[in-house]
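Researcher: Re-running this chain for the archive, since the previous output was lost when a drive failed. Same request as before.
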Amino acid sequence: MEPCAGSVRCLPLRTPTLPPATHTNTYLLGEGELAVVDAASPYLEEQAALDRCLDALAARGERVVELLLTHHHIDHVSGTAHLAKRLGVPVAAHPLTAQLVRGRMAVSRELDEGSVLRYGKAEFHALFTPGHAPGHLVFFEPRSGALVAGDMVASVGTIIIDPPEGNMRRYLESLERLRALDGLRCILPAHGPPVEQPQQLLAFYLAHRLEREARVVAALVQGAATLEKLVPLAYPEVALSVYPLAARSLLAHLIKLRDEGRAVENNGFWQSA
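Model: Regenerated structure tokens:
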């Protein structure tokens, strides 16, 4: 486990995540009493590496008391049931995430906006940030300004908004909410290294999404078209191999525009309202 910022340490674990990312960061919060955020890997050798790290900390008198989930995706939760059983500790998550992982693990404590989490001398605040996933949470340490951000942003690759669980309007609102967070000094994403200039990254993410939305609007002006026909118009820079993923985010933009009364869909064809 390597120190990241404030009372946060990190161990990247290899997971079945989307390229170019190959790992998901498992974070450890606290001092003395600890919480593990996103015990992520389904791979036995990666689970064993996390077990060894936690055993070493236990030998120094630091003990894990809780496991936290940012959201339900497999590259974030796949090692959680193993670790909960091994350590005999509870799992905490947003109620929507608890529903989505039912059958894979039991969530003992439900967290929501404003939940205050104390681990030893460290204090973290849970913030509800839906959009990428319906029950997405991030964890903010006011003392250090460190934000464990899950899949709100990444420093390796980008974030996919995939309907129906992905919601572009709510994702943009969550980005704006983080941008306005008082005292934010460092973002610790699930994929990639720490972000030491968080405001710049959040501004980039917002600008990028709004620029993409403008391209979608311009494509719709050209006339009714299917989702597949709109992808190269709205995503002219992406490789053909990326079209399936681009189509999912494009659909999220189209649904947002439809909900705003700016686009309509009829028998699979989309056009300006």
